[in-house]
Amino acid sequence: MKKVLSLAFLIGSAFLVSAQMTLSSGAQIVVASGSTLVVNDVVNTSGTIDNDGTVSVKGDVTNNSGGLFDSGSGGTVTFTGSSAQEVTGAATVHFYGTLDINNSNGVSITNTTTGAAQEVHGALSFTAGKLTLNNFDLTLGTADPTGTGASAYIVTNGTGQLKRVVAASDVIFPVGNSAYNPITLNNAGTSDTYGVKVVDSKPASFSGTTHIVNRSWDITEAVSDGSNYTATTQWNSGEEATFDRTRSSIGFTSDAGSNVSWGSVGAATGSDPYTQSQSGYTSIGTLMVGDYFYAGLVIDLKVVLAAAWNAGNDNMDKTLNTAGLIPLTDPYSLGTSVSSVPASAVDWVKVELRNSGNHATITNSYAKFVDVDGQIIEEDGSNMKLTGALTGSYYVAIQHRNHLGVVSNSTVDIGSTPIVNFTGAQATAWQDGTISTNAAMKEVETGVFGLWDGDATANGTIAYNGASNDRSAVLTQVGVSTPGNTVQDTYSANDVNMDGDVIYNGAGSDRSSILSVVGVSTPGVVYTGHVPEL
Predict the structure, then answer these.
(1) pTM of the model
(2) Domain residue spans in the chain?
(3) Nearest to residue 128, comparing CAs of 80, 173, 181?
(4) How is residue 513 annotated by DSSP?
């Protein structure tokens, strides 16, 4: 039998409505403090419930008008069904006081198009079961939900998000999909309402399949800009794919994973589940968790380009950079592009990791910058990071577009923040034989070593005469018929002294630079530098 209640005051300890309770025509139910209303289905078209006691719902709640509960309510609404329950209807239910989920079969916001977003203004507690959002949002108040855990959380299985206001204190979003994967946000920027949902996979456009956690957190904000938040993600060991949690990192993407900006690398905390944190996020997008393979292992790597060395200043000149000649895409066909060249950069260099069993076998190649002090750096000026390389030992090689390359004389463990300084000792470089006039590196001044300059043809030798000699390459660019010509303001391998001009004759000529390397008295010498298989 359907019961239509227009007005009732419940004073006793309990009142049972055994079937459907329909509120219409302005009907009001008042549940006094200390009283309990037990009801199966609730259907509201234009009524309210003023609840200071307990409303125990064993069926579904359908709300088609108003907020259903009076804003002055301070009692508890508890879902206690023996089968799955649903909150549906065209209008938002505004839960005041406490909303309690106490159904091991779960409660969900409707999965039909007739549903609406829901709001909890007071407290949300979990006694048993989960709360599933489907395609509708749930907004919580300032109180953190209680009773959450591996079997009691908010399920973000569709487009629906959990929304909360986040300011300069930790705010937990107790969300998950097939498992519990909460995230905590702390926003030092402008207070805003953030929305979060968890996806049981990596971002759709991220190409990697290992060295990741198979979870991602989509984050939105109500008002654009003003964010400066710290995120702490949580995951379980079964969600890791060939993953090193001792070197984990949070990645941020705004294009579904096509481009990911990785945070600092560090050990995850906890013991299944695990957490990782990263601060300084100023925009919204998707967060994921990876390890060193994507975030990179830092290496302290130094090299001097002999052509750019300025002995008077004990560093290199950055003439090409000052003149704006260094391109934004690397010259080694590695496809590395930057938005700007670091202010301290001298030029692009190519860094290679080579197999520990064979220094001629290249495993990884990187295009990076070398600064005036010889440090190999990233676009932001920080020390170089090795990405896409497995931890282990490698030979390290450095090449430049018109210098002879160099290979380390021993392997380097890249998992231990290694230091490789080619500038300070000839013995750092690999030698085919004893150090001689054809040493692997050039002593640019006493105790300072650099890559040999003059390889305009990039063929691994420096030659003044003969086949494929570097002098002829310079002559070809300036013009054979007028060898006194100068090609100015150019980024060219034939600019072997790196002054921005290609000159064949006269002061500062590149021809003279080549000749000074091979030796004025023996200009037919071919210089190889005794560097293996470069």
Answers:
(1) 0.88
(2) 1-160, 194-294, 297-450, 462-527
(3) 80
(4) H
